[in-house]
Amino acid sequence: MPELPEVETVRNVLKKNLIGLSIKKVVVLYPNMIKTNLNDFKNKLINEKFIDIKRYGKWLVFETNNYSLVSHLRMEGKYYYTDRNNIEKHEHVIFHLSNNYNLIYKDVRKFGVMYLVDKGKLFVDTPLKELGLEPFDKKLDVNYLKEKFKNKNLSIKTVLLDQSILSGLGNIYVDEVLFKSSISPFKKAKDINELEIKLIIESSKEILEKAIKYGGTTIRSYTSSLGVTGSFQDYLMVHTKKICNVCNSSIKISKIGGRSTYYCPKCQGVKDE
DNA sequence: AGTGCGACCCGAACGC
DNA sequence: TGCGTTCGGGTCGCAC
């Protein structure tokens, strides 16, 4: 499912194809997906040209002359750049382009969302205003997370999933980061020490970089699409695993903050849960 | 302010 | 085999 590495891959592929093209028409087949005014979404993008495509955390942002088109793929969203003109099942938004190709958004779960805002309002009128730093951000250091973790009575697992604290880690990668850092997912964020914060930062970078290198993670049924059939699942250490690669213990699964969490009790020092 | 949880979806997996 | 039920995933928005 698309997390930061997958979104980065999609961004790179789309960027190669879309820059310089303009939009002729927008068709929205599932209006609930559009979180800003629907008529504006359909009308204002006409004749807009793609200038750039950016990524913030797991959010994809198409920059046009006058607007920012914000898109979150959630679990199964994907884009197709194609000259096919028919609409297939689960395709919800179609951008007809100036070269007669189409940019098609497909999402089986209908979980993805889009926002259209005036240029300059990206961090004012969309959920992006809440995003914390990315693992790759030069401004990210021990003090930043120390401040964020302070007084946090929630588990480190829950806190690392909170995009307003650190942006870009999803359920799979948080499990991997905590395993690599030898930290119990149950540990309260406020009890995480400086050394552990250091490990979390390093592991996050390493794991995301490697995941980007392999094009992201493909688990559960996931048909290949534009640039997003990753192979990082072959390098997972705990998530979806049964036996620990390091110590041979049985990997355990618990619900933490409502999310299924994989961990090695021995490597991550979990006594009883 | 911090925390918890339902809602949003529907195919796959599960239970009978 | 076929049917009904449950689950999961990220984020928002609301209730406490």
Q: Beta-sheet strand percentage?
A: 15-25%
Largest sheet: 4 strands, antiparallel
Segments where pLDDT lies below 50 for 5+ residues?
220-224
- Class from helix and strand fractions: alpha+beta
What integer value in Å does the Rg equal? Answer: 20 Å
- Work out the count of structural domains: 2
Describe this structure in words.
This protein has two domains: 4-130, N-terminal domain of MutM-like DNA repair proteins (Alpha-Beta Barrel); 142-263, Helicase, Ruva Protein, domain 3, CATH 1.10.8. Helix 1 packs across helix 6 (194-213). The chain has helices at residues 4-18, 38-44, 142-149, 156-161, 171-180, 194-213, and strands spanning 23-28, 50-56, 59-64, 67-72, 78-82, 91-97, 102-106, 113-118, 252-256, 259-263. A hairpin with a 2-residue loop joins strand 9 (252-256) and strand 10 (259-263). The chain is built from six helices and ten strands, in the order αβαβββββββααααββ. Mean pLDDT is 89; it is low at 220-224. Strands 1-6-7-5 form a four-stranded antiparallel sheet. It has a four-stranded antiparallel sheet with strand order 2-3-4-8, with helices on one face. It has a two-stranded antiparallel sheet with strand order 9-10. The chain has 273 residues and is α+β, with helices and mostly antiparallel strands. It binds a DNA duplex (16 and 16 nucleotides) through residues 1, 3, 32, 35, 58, 72, 74-76, 90, 107-111, 113, 127, 151-154, 158, 161, 163, 170-171, 220-221, 257-260.
